[in-house]
């Protein structure tokens, strides 16, 4: 049985596992945004926290995914369900690009623009919301782009702990030594990663300061 025959015959399951995979990626990416962006903003306001926060996020990235799932297994409530463990693990992996890009984007704003804002009487909070974040938005979206693509790839490993997703086909195909089954998981996952990369890349370009200025003119 070739790849297309397998997909056609198992289209309901392919669709179900694709939706499970999409749910794991979307939930973890949203959580990473809600945690990573505030952390990135915080370390721009309190520089002593810069190295510890980025250092911890870097260390998390070096932990193998299966090992991280194992560390989370004894955690109360989290370890009770595989999908919770998978979402938390994916969120942790996605934090580094979110924190780093938020920090870099805000720090990359021209100091002259910041001083001009202060001269106009803007408070630190107003500067952040009206000047720094809009100018850093393209870089921040780039972090979301990287985080989403990472999550799509790592989510395939989540099937090893029973969290579902397209990794189910990959692990099943490896056990059966069947390339058609492996491709039924790998190709939709690759397509999902490509779509996330292209979609967020387009959004990143649209929200870059240069593009915004061109649109305004």
Description:
With 217 residues, this protein is mainly α. It has helices at residues 3-9, 11-45, 50-62, 65-72, 82-107, 111-119, 124-155, 167-176, 179-206, 209-216. It is elongated, with a radius of gyration of 20 Å.
End-to-end Cα distance, whole Å, is 57 Å
Order of helices and strands: HHHHHHHHHH
The low-confidence parts are 212-217
- Overall shape: elongated
Helix residue percentage = over 70%
Q: How many strands, which pairing sense, and closed or not: the largest β-sheet? A: none
Tell me the β content: under 5%
Mean pLDDT across all amino acids: 88
Give the structural class: mainly alpha
User: Total strand count, please?
Assistant: 0
* Structure annotation, total helices: 10
Radius of gyration: 20 Å
What labels describe this entry?
mainly alpha, disordered C terminus, 10 helices, 217 residues
Write the layout of secondary structure elements.
Elements: H1 3-9, H2 11-45, H3 50-62, H4 65-72, H5 82-107, H6 111-119, H7 124-155, H8 167-176, H9 179-206, H10 209-216
What is this entry, summarized?
Helices cover 81% and strands 0% of the residues. The protein is an all-alpha fold.
